[in-house]
């Protein structure tokens, strides 16, 4: 299978209007449109001094580290199920190779790194430390991190054969989320890499787009693949929310990210209430429990690339209280100060 990988985490999704935008998948979808721009996540700095962002790297106790963490340790059951279905699609690998080549890889690579700032220990070092710490917690090699100027809160991941994968975050993310919330977003993106989601995100997307050009059954084939793709995408996002929780180690941090992306802004951030958002999620479940409500709910979510944020919030709240999550915490060890540096 070809190796270009692109995943993102946005709450607004759009039907792709160009080849480049079609490779971008989002963190969450709020509308009925089907494909999304790259991940949308921002963070509000905890301190500002002389107009510059000041973030304390040691703003929380030393987190737990998962030394031997495997992707299947936290993969959502629906992710496992739908991944097997995708792998069983005849010709997916071959068609993926045909649709994707070195030119496409270079377009995506140059577009992203040519318009962004590369984060390092000497460039936005606080962000660099957050990424290094999150990767260490999840037992994965840290990708490069870029910051890109954009009014749309977003983040996404790109991996190309023979090159180090990288994550891109938009500047508006910085204005919306706290430090811990932003790190949870980075962890969500790392979850895609940890679980090899990007391969299926990219190739299934390209396969779907390419199928429309096949004479005769092309449109039918594309529609069938789209439905399966979206089922898998929604499940994959639930897995990556779990990765975010493993790094944040506080479900309210992850739920707060979902809440702010659903309806938050910097000026109202301190008035948002996670518990009220969870109650909103429960009310949605209640309203959709009737036969009519169940039908409407399925119709509402069937063509979304991401689960509704209230449902994701409920899922992460339930998993945080599960024996599976508690068992993972028992296996973890404390990250020491040297590792954090």
From TrEMBL:
<protein>
    <recommendedName>
        <fullName>Peptidase M48 domain-containing protein</fullName>
    </recommendedName>
</protein>
<keyword id="KW-0645">Protease</keyword>
<dbReference type="GO" id="GO:0046872">
    <property type="term" value="F:metal ion binding"/>
</dbReference>
<comment type="similarity">
    <text>Belongs to the peptidase M48 family.</text>
</comment>
<keyword id="KW-0862">Zinc</keyword>
<keyword id="KW-0479">Metal-binding</keyword>
<dbReference type="InterPro" id="IPR001915">
    <property type="entry name" value="Peptidase_M48"/>
</dbReference>
<dbReference type="GO" id="GO:0004222">
    <property type="term" value="F:metalloendopeptidase activity"/>
</dbReference>
<keyword id="KW-0378">Hydrolase</keyword>
<dbReference type="GO" id="GO:0006508">
    <property type="term" value="P:proteolysis"/>
</dbReference>
<feature type="domain" description="Peptidase M48">
    <location>
        <begin position="125"/>
        <end position="319"/>
    </location>
</feature>
<dbReference type="Pfam" id="PF01435">
    <property type="entry name" value="Peptidase_M48"/>
</dbReference>
<keyword id="KW-0482">Metalloprotease</keyword>
